[in-house]
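Bug: token stream looks shifted between consecutive jobs. Job 1:
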Amino acid sequence: MVEISYRVIYGDTDCGGVMYYANYLRLFEIGRTEFIRQRGLTYKEIEEDLGIILPVVEVYAKYKASARYDDLLTIKTTLSELKPFKITFSYEIYRKDELLCQGKTTHVPINREGKIVRLPEKIQTLLKK
């Protein structure tokens, strides 16, 4: 599991000062990016060096409480499934000990032509660390 902090900025919120629901998906992406980085990879390397793109093909989010402007959040990211043609990440977003949102994203590896390809062994090995 990878944990990172994020402070809710004014631009994340609606007119009531509550974090806009779609911005939680951005937090999922922040968590996933840092998860991959902490395994010794970057999205840039995956795309440029290996020619693999990892689009989101499915997303799920369950909202339990609202984040507000200036809240300090913790994004917890785990790898919940890793197969040669599919990766699923799970997320939990907390304010202190209060769970605000949990979710998942599923990704398939594609090449630059948009064809589904096998996830290179190098990526599978690093993600399992």
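Job 2, same session, no restart:
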Amino acid sequence: MEPLIKLEKLGRKFSAESVALKDVNLEIQKGDFICIIGTSGSGKSTLLNMISGIDTPSEGTIKKPDHVAMVFQNSALLPWFTALDNVSLIIEAQTKGLSKKNIRDEALKHLELMGLKNFVDKYPHQLSGGQRQRVGIARALAANTDVLLLDEPFSALDTQTTIELHIDLIKIWQETGKTIIMVSHSIEEAVTLANRIV
């Protein structure tokens, strides 16, 4: 089967002395849940940024879908928008001619999926860290891509919230069939979530 994502001899240098990645080869099939683990500074986030298109390789090639969605470590929500507005913005940007009601309904669907039905009108500063990450995941899901990238999304959260989000993420993966690539510093988290560990 042809891989959905293929990295060949991928490398990233920031300078002659600063080599983040060298000679990375990886094939990811549609529907895989991949967890990339490693020590701090080993190039995990750099690799994810290149898959997302935020960064470009210095050498080698990446074959991937044109559009992917990313969940950042700090949720990266727009502080002047409510949870509903943060998710609606993505839907509005991707769909032409959709009515405001349909955009709102679609955004609500993703927020409800993440357990945020009662928080749609709250601003990021009114939400807990876990709730902000849930909005970030809802926003990424609303982008409606085949690939979901997560950059250590649970590292700043307490243990109970992390466990709840692990359960939610596994459910999303099973129900949507999305290809998920997640960076983590935790071997335990990787073993709990992923079907492949890199």
